[in-house]
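Minutes, methods subgroup
Present: GH (chair), OT, SY

1. OT presented the first of two proteins processed in the latest run. Sequence and structure tokens recorded below as shown on screen.
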Amino acid sequence: MANTGIHPELRSVARFTPRKLIYPWTLPVLRRLSGLQRPKNDGIEVLTLESGVGIRLHRPAGATTTTPGLLWIHGGGYVLGTAAQDDVLCRRFAKELGITVAAVDYRLAPEHPYPAPLEDCYTALEWLARLPGVDPDRIAIGGASAGGGLCAALALLARDRDGVKPAFQLLVYPMLDDRSVGQHLDDPGQRLWNATSNKFGWQAYLGGADPEVAVPARRSDLAGLPPAWLGVGTLDLFHDEDLDYAQRLKAAGVPCEVHVVPGAFHGFDGIAAKADISQEFFRSQCDSLRQNFQGVKQ
């Protein structure tokens, strides 16, 4: 492999990881393959809310008191994926932090464009805040990739509505800007997601919506949002837009911890979960969540 700046711990898996995965002609195939997978539901409560929104609920073992909660939003470019794909991750959060994690199965674009996926996430957030055993004042929201984009949009929506107010937002290489401005649009070190996939995902999600309203990075007022953790690799398509969003959060008075991983491509922590840099990426998220939950009055 030519020198692409990929981190040494990721070079072997990078050889077998495609530069792009989702585009119009692969989406039907990927969805069919996803449908063939039957998740294991051991220890997981699989629920369907009255609205039709699906929830996979991960409770901490042996909890006898009220716990913080995390609403987790899966990735997939707004067009693919299910809550079950992150079962292992959600169990890790629940075990490591002793919290209740609710992973939401939101409707997917292009069949269900904005605002349907976001409204599903908001419905799930309201449900989690009412769940017995969960402290409504210590609820975080989080997601990876498109899930991170929905998390950022949900933080904005929750701020603008007189309802549940998340205490924290966990933005894992979030998909924030349909314009994809930056220096990394054609980087040979990219994997899984490139500018072609990004254009397709955003077009499917936005439909006929006004991007000035629907796209988090286009929103001008970021004041009053919950504190954030944002992590991204230097070879990720979203690197520049993510760091720009983090700077704008800070400028608006929103605390934001930034974790940049040198030589890491999009989704690296899922592809190479056992790598030291992936383990550190997860620990950083847990540390930030733990500090936030401890800092909120119980």
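2. SY then presented the second protein from the same run.
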Amino acid sequence: MRAAVVTAFGGPEAVEVVETEVPEPGAGQVRIKVAAAALNPVDAAVRSGVFGGAGERLGLGWDVAGTVDAVGAGAVWHVGDEVVALSHGAVKPLGAHAEYVVVPADAVAGAPATADAVHAATLPLNALTAAQALDLLGLERGQSLLVTGAAGAVGGFAVQLAVRAGLVVTALAREEDEELVRSLGAARFTSGAVEPGGVDGVLDAAVLGEAALGSVRDGGAYVGVIPQAAPSPVRGVRTTAVEVSADGARLAELVRLADEGMLTLRVAETYALDDAAKAHARLAEGGVRGRLVLIP
């Protein structure tokens, strides 16, 4: 099969599409024939060596939508099931940017009934990250939340999930994205500074760090999206960062919300798997709204 990998760290040109053996599922695992797989900033981080693994072949891709085509012992899925899944892990020999990927059975959820595979592939990593970040914030209905990077993939899902949870959301994004983030349910919009101490919590999808922390009231909460990179606590503000975990049951809930129209699946562009390096180059240019999606 073909798979996108890196064998030496670098820019988009470091991405190679190689021929490799089709992986076999072990006990409690399933193999998915990939129909579509989203490209995320974490893939660029793997490519550039942020997570280490020098001298190894590193597979790329965390998000997958496709069809179960083999199951290991004890797996509850069946050949032919249409699914989505999170292929978790930064340092792995093969990822979802391939013709086939093996994942734990409990990382899998049934695919959305209302979306094609390309759109479905944008859901797992970013929606799980948003949901798990909101869990860490622990805000209650009626409290206020600032979402930075609200027009991005994680930020957009965070806005919609927070509104559904009854939070009053201020969206921080570029001026040209105001209509988009308001359509996602944000009650307030800003493209610049936020009143110091003006919100109960912040989900810092734009990785602004201390600048975002300053918007939180004394005793509030800050959650970032890069593990071990949260700013130090000040003024009694609790600070942490989400480290996304695979969770098929939670992913199934998010699929349901997508099917009910409560989560918006956004695709910016599609690329053939063989053009994975071109997709990385486009991601590096910035300004992508929605996800770039690879199709084997």
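Chair's summary of item 2: The chain has two domains: 2-123+265-295, 126-241.
Next meeting: continue with the remaining queue.
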